[in-house]
Amino acid sequence: MSGEEAPTQQREEPEQQVKKAEEPKPEPESPAAVKPEEKMEEEEEKALSSRALVLTGYGGYEKIKLQVKTMKAPQLRSGEVLVRVKACGLNFAELLGKQGLYELLPAPPVIMGMEGSGVVEAAAEDVKDRKVGDRVIAMNRCEMWQELVVVPAKRTYLMPEEMSFEEAAALPVNYMTAYMMLFEMANLRPGKSVLIHMAAGGVGIAATQLCQTVQDVTVFGTASASKHETISQGGVTHPIDYRTKDYVTEIRKISPNGVDIVLDPLGGSDTQKGFSLLKPLGMLIAFGAANCVTGQKKNLLAMAKTWYHQLSLNTLKLMQSNKAISGFHLGYITDEELFDRTVLKLLELYRQGKIKPRIDSCYHFEEVAEAMKRMHERQNIGKVILLPEPKKSEEKPKSNADAAENVEKNQAVAGEKKDEAVEEVKAEKD
């Protein structure tokens, strides 16, 4: 400012003060004025949308609802990571949980799912061995059936580069169950024989593949006749149609002395049959009660029948028979070292090409009822996978110009095609 201009400015000062009082404060230049707007924009950017499958009550397929929730970015606690889930595993435990028969699942409403795979989107400051962008296998007691999930970093494992998200979601529960039963409990060795029930299911195929990693293991597998060719190619030595033949009689024809190991996911009278098939020093491992699940809803008669025919033993009978019976439940494994050692061993076997999850089918969250029905009716050969991403409409945008405009339309069309057993609910913002 020059010295000549100064007096003029001083004379105009009172007038300027009046004008300043009348005029609003400048918005663009004032950091204080911009700050609230920037803050709102930041909050909007942090808002996340996540689709989830929620068990709203015990009963049929209609009790599982697809919900879409808009939420704030989660505040990660020590040792946690945020994972965007790409694929989830469906297990028999979820069929039990839907009926209120899985004791480890919290009471409804609850998001189900114990395993999945995806990409790390955020990590707590103290997490050093995981970073944003890592492709991981993730496990949790529940809540894996959603697009965004917070899990302990120690329950995530880096995926091999060649592994797909679907394979990664199929690996943890089934293969860990099979591995621990065969090698930690039954001590599978060369020359032994194993009876695998439901040999075309997730655990059945995992157990069959793991048996192939040991020399001269004979595998008897029960499955419907239509699945025999597939399970034979996968390593089952003697497939048996449990629907038309008595598997005890069929096994005795081939191996009069019985088998060394029985993996029993059935319960009831089948446990008794399995125990009778054991050779001296053999072991039966009970790891399920599939015979209890006969319909969509809890069947008290089926449960009573299963438990009425359940094997009952005392120590004297065990000593006289020179046989062993054991139980296995992955959900109650608390040994962190055993947990990690097993997963890392399985990932190494995958890299070596000795095991490979077989994917039966993939269903979007909208189709969860169809997925559960397929498993319930034992139609699957291998793992049934759930995909969090929305099912795309069959109609494609006619041009690139219309693409952005049609995204919402496509999602709406996909929503109209959902199964009646599933509904999408827009939750309020937190």
UniProtKB/TrEMBL annotation:
Keywords on record: Oxidoreductase
UniProt name for this protein: Synaptic vesicle membrane protein VAT-1 homolog
Lineage: Eukaryota, Metazoa, Chordata, Craniata, Vertebrata
Gene3D superfamilies in the record: Medium-chain alcohol dehydrogenases, catalytic domain, NAD(P)-binding Rossmann-like Domain
Ranges annotated as biased composition (Basic and acidic residues): 10-28, 389-399, 415-430
InterPro entries xrefs: ADH-like_N, ER, GroES-like_sf, NAD(P)-bd_dom_sf, SV-ATPase_mito-regulator
Pfam family, one: ADH_zinc_N_2
Ranges in a coiled coil: none
UniProt GO molecular function: oxidoreductase activity
Domain Enoyl reductase (ER) span(s) in chain numbering: 59-386
Cross-referenced SMART domains: PKS_ER
GO cellular component, as recorded: mitochondrial outer membrane
Biological process, per Gene Ontology: negative regulation of mitochondrial fusion
Domain of life: Eukaryota
Positions of the UniProt region annotated as Disordered: 1-49, 387-430
